[in-house]
Design brief:
Elements lengths: L4 H11 L3 H7 L6 E5 L7 E2 L3 E2 L6 E4 L9 H4 L3 E3 L7 H8 L5 E4 L6 H9 L5 E5 L3 H14 L4 E4 L3 H7 L4 E7 L12 H6 L2 H18 L3 E11 L8 H10 L2 E4 L10 E2 L8 E3 L9 E8 L21 E2 L4 H4 L8 E6 L2 E6 L3 H10 L2 E4 L1 E7 L2 E4 L1 H5 L9 E4 L2 H8 L12 E7 L2 E8 L4 E3 L20 E2 L4
Parallel strand pairs: 6-7, 6-9, 7-8, 9-10, 21-22
Antiparallel strand pairs: 1-4, 1-5, 2-25, 3-4, 8-18, 10-14, 11-14, 12-13, 13-14, 15-16, 16-17, 17-19, 19-20, 22-23, 23-24
Length: 467
């Protein structure tokens, strides 16, 4: 890897005697890691090493073709860089109650799906992405993760800060950065690096923090992270936050065996991940608490924008409500002929968010009526709240599963007519409508596997033990 002279001249003094080890690590292959979805795959990886700071994180000995693993498409696991799984420690140490969380720069969804697995069922997660095209990718990945208490939005940070004051108990800003920590995985990041770009990123990160700060409740926690090494985007920005806002930094307990580094010269209570010390890429994280007391005046308003068409609870037949387990804990509503369910305890919060922000997806999209026929949707199949007893189940092999994921025509002559929930290793994969001589493949067209290639090697990562 050819590092620019300016990058070397800036970074080498920071690492001092560790520079040679760091430079050598950049020449090594980047490790592959995944995080298990605990609601879909209660099992163990085959002969795999654990990620020390994440209870559901594992390393793989080599990178397989995830595209051809049906369990990947079923949301049983997520391919996520190991260092970034460290956000788990902030939630476990400080955020254990029923809370409202914003993941501000959330696409493609690794950290959001991780957060969803960490917060309680009575909590709310808003996953936001400012770039519209990326918000659809975020929505797809959050749908596959299966958590019903999630809203995906497509808004600028200033929209959220202005429209939802003191709304969130925690905000994650995984800030757009110069990408130094991704040099091993992204050669373009090496080519595009420059001191000017670092300065530009630093200023953009400050604007993002300032724009969304008002949405954080007093005593709420801002989690600030980047995938870069330099002080400008990390330590200097943390000091800028502390200097410009009424806030204090929080310590995060770590194990010495994790080999996570402290901030340069211990300037602030923050953590660096370096590839020569941990099995992962470059990463930086700090947790900051907003000072002040929660009072009546700074509680979020329950008022909604009446000009917008907010969803209203309607009547859905009990037969279809029972598609969801513990359906009595959900509010069911109709929007333009489409039926959704959202956890009742956070429904009022959902209405607030939906009246103020641009929604991409939310809760469980159950289905829609086509004449007298109720067509179940893929969001329901992916939900970890689906009531599998409400459907005819048919477990299929890998070859048939890949054909289904390619949205190919299928035939199930030995199965009854009607809607059937296909599973792979007993994990829901999606719906078909069997009409006898053929089956209508209901897998979302935009999510289908587009390549006709099928590798000889079987990707079989998990031993599934159903809950």
């Amino acid at each position: 890897m050819q590092l620019s002279e300016k990058f070397v001249s800036y970074t080498q003094p920071l690492l001092q005697e560790e520079w040679i080890d760091f430079e050598q690590a950049l020449e090594q292959e980047s490790p592959t890691s995944i995080r298990i979805n605990p609601t879909k795959a209660k099992g163990l990886l085959i002969q795999s090493e654990r990620v020390l700071w994440c209870e559901t994180g594992y390393y793989l000995a080599k990178r397989p073709s995830f595209t051809f693993d049906p369990l990947f498409h079923a949301g049983a696991y997520y391919v996520q860089e190991a260092s970034s799984m460290f956000i788990e420690q902030v939630f476990r140490q400080y955020l254990n109650d029923d809370i409202k969380v914003l993941d501000l720069c959330a696409a493609p969804g690794g950290k959001s799906s991780h957060i969803a697995s960490l917060i309680s069922e009575e909590s709310l997660l808003v996953s936001n992405e400012v770039i519209k095209s990326r918000s659809f990718i975020l929505s797809e990945n959050m749908t596959k993760s299966g958590y019903p208490n999630v809203i995906v939005t497509n808004n600028d940070p200033s929209d959220i800060g202005n429209k939802l004051p003191s709304f969130f108990d925690a905000i994650l800003i995984d800030a757009p950065c110069s990408g130094e920590g991704m040099f091993r995985k992204d050669p373009h990041a090496v080519e595009e690096w420059s001191p000017a770009n670092v300065q530009l990123c630093k200023e953009r990160q400050q604007r993002i923090v300032a724009d969304v700060w008002d949405a954080l409740k007093p005593e709420g926690i801002l989690i600030y992270s980047t995938c870069t090494y330099n002080k400008l985007e990390n330590e200097e920005n943390i000091n800028w936050i502390l200097d410009n806002f009424d806030a204090e930094i929080l310590p995060i307990e770590t194990d010495a065996n994790w080999n996570i580094s402290q901030a340069y010269n211990n300037e602030v209570l923050a953590h660096h991940f370096f590839p020569h010390k941990v099995k992962g890429e470059g990463f930086f994280l700090a947790a900051i608490q907003k000072k002040g007391n929660v009072t009546f005046e700074n509680l979020p308003s329950n008022k909604r924008n009446k000009k917008q068409n907010t969803a209203k609870p309607q009547t859905l037949a009990l037969e279809y409500k029972k598609y969801i387990s513990r359906h009595e804990e959900y509010t069911f509503f109709d929007k333009n002929g489409l039926w959704f369910a959202f956890p009742e305890k956070q429904y009022e919060a959902f209405l607030q968010v939906s009246s103020q922000l641009k929604l991409v997806s939310a809760g469980i999209y159950i289905g829609e009526f086509k004449g007298k026929d109720f067509l179940p949707q893929h969001s329901l199949a992916m939900s970890n709240r689906i009531n599998k007893d409400a459907f005819i189940l048919h477990d299929i092999g890998r070859e048939t599963a890949i054909a289904y994921l390619r949205k190919e025509a299928l035939v199930f002559e030995d199965q009854p007519k009607g809607y059937i929930l296909l599973t792979y290793k007993n994990v829901p994969l999606g719906f078909i409508k069997n009409i006898g001589n053929r089956a209508n493949n209901l897998y979302p067209n935009e999510w289908r596997i587009r390549t006709s290639h099928l590798p000889d090697e079987t990707t079989d990562l998990l031993q599934i033990v159903l809950g």
